[in-house]
Amino acid sequence: MTAHDLPRGTASSAQPVAELIDVQRVYRMGDVDVRALDGVSFTFRQGEYWAIMGSSGSGKSTLLNILGCIDRPSGGTYKVRGRDTNELDDDELSTFRGGQIGFVFQSYNLLPQLDVLENIMVPVMYQEDVPEGIEERARMLADRVGLGSRLDHRPLQLSGGQQQRVAIARSLINDPALILADEATGNLDSKTADEILNLFDELHAEGKTILLVTHEPDVGARAERVLRLRDGRVDTVTENR
Amino acid sequence: MRGSTLFRTVRLGISSLLLHKLRSALTMLGVLFGVASVIAMLAVGEGASEEAQEQIRKLGSRNVILRSVKPPDSGNDTSEIRIAEYGLTREDHERIEGSFPGVQRAVPVLQAPVEVRSSDLVCLPRVMATLPDFREVTRRELYDGRFLTQIDEETRALVCVLGYEVARFLFPFQSALGQRVKLGEHYFDVVGVMYPRGPIGSIQADFNSETGGEVFVPLATGRAYFGERQIVIRGGTQDIQEVQLHEIVVEASRDDDVKFVADACREMLRRGHSQKDYEVIVPLELLMRAEETKKIFNRLLGSIAGISLLVGGIGIMNVMLATVTERTREIGVRRALGARKGHIVTQFLVETIVLSASGGLLGVVFGVLSPWLIDLFSENPTPAIVTPFAPVLAFSISVGIGVVFGLYPAWRAASMDPVDALRHE
Question: Is A104:A171 a contact under the CB 8 Å cutoff?
Answer without folding.
Answer: yes
